[in-house]
Write a structure and sequence with these properties.
single chain, 303 residues, mainly beta, 2 helices, Leu-rich_rpt, repeat, leucine-rich repeat, RLP_Defense_Trigger
Length: 303
């Protein structure tokens, strides 16, 4: 929908009980007259935080694809204390993410800061956002290592996406405390060290895991996933000669999971087991995508 001038928001003034409004791509700059709105999507406009200044009933605010060109406008949104979902992806926000700026949102469950220009590190101040279920810092310019506390204290977290940054160092073992985690994506970073078996083994709620394109070392055994009955997607794509994936221990094991996607390219699969094809695939009946290329595997594919 397009208009020659600004969107005629005054036409909605009579809709006193309106709760959901999607004005994406409409060229508007304010909705303050709609006092009972609970969900607002002004995506692909030229609005900023002031568009929602007086909408203190909002639970869902999607400001994605609106250019802020600067830091997060914390003061303009601080009064939105009922917010449960805040999407600030593709807004050209920059600087160091100020986690304290989000602490006024006591009911915030979803925070999407992906595809911006944030720098700095993931700070221990994350513990203040204890209500979070989903958080994404994907595809920014974050660096440094993950803190030993703060992030690990978000025990209700269901999705954590840190992909596409420049994070490095070893993964803190305290991440095993995130036992409710369903999606864990740290792909395309610079993490090093070993994947501690006890850390992975404790995350039995995982449905999606992507550790691709890092510089991990040592052996990762699928035995760590033996109790992961909900797992559907595994992505461990690598081109690091110091990292190896082992799928055949214990011998003859039958996994509890049914995978839809398994991507294990260039990860030196079963290098110490004669480079045999992964036998667990014989028990996977819902596969949609499989990539085990560049592993120099030998033998017949299970059928």
């Amino acid at each position: 929908m397009t208009f020659n001038k600004n969107f005629p928001i005054s036409e909605f003034a009579a809709l006193e009980n309106l709760e959901v409004l999607d004005l994406s791509n409409c060229n508007f700059n304010g909705v303050s007259i709609l006092k009972k709105l609970k969900s607002l999507n002004p995506g692909y406009n030229r609005c900023n935080g002031s568009a929602a200044t007086s909408l203190n009933t909002l639970k869902n605010l999607d400001l994605s694809n609106n250019p802020f060109l600067g830091p997060f406008p914390a003061q303009e949104l601080a009064h939105l204390t009922n917010l449960e979902k805040l999407d600030l992806s593709f807004t050209q926000l920059n600087g160091t993410p100020d986690i304290q700026a989000f602490t006024s949102f006591h009911q915030l469950k979803v925070l999407d800061l992906s595809w911006n220009h944030f720098v700095g590190s993931v700070t221990s101040a994350m513990h203040a956002l204890s209500s979070l279920r989903v958080v994404s810092f994907a595809y920014n310019y974050l660096n440094g290592s993950l803190p030993d506390h703060g992030l690990c204290e978000l025990k209700n977290l269901h999705e954590l996406d840190l992909s596409g940054n420049m994070l490095h160092g070893t993964l803190p073992e305290c991440l095993k405390n995130l036992s409710s985690l369903k999606l864990f994506d740290i792909s395309s970073n610079q993490f090093t060290g070993k994947l501690v078996p006890s850390f992975i083994a404790n995350l039995t709620s995982l449905e999606y895991i992507d550790f691709s394109h890092n510089t991990f070392e040592g052996l990762f055994s699928f035995n760590s996933l033996s109790n992961h009955s909900k797992l559907e997607v595994i992505r461990f794509l690598s081109n690091n000669d110091k990292f190896e994936v082992e799928t055949e221990e214990p011998i003859g094991w039958i996994p509890m999971f049914q995978l839809k996607v398994v991507m294990l390219s260039s990860c030196n699969m079963n290098r110490n087991k004669g480079r045999v094809l992964p036998g667990f695939l014989l028990h996977q009946h819902q596969l949609q995508e499989v990539d085990i290329s560049h592993n120099h595997l030998e033998g017949k594919f299970p059928n």
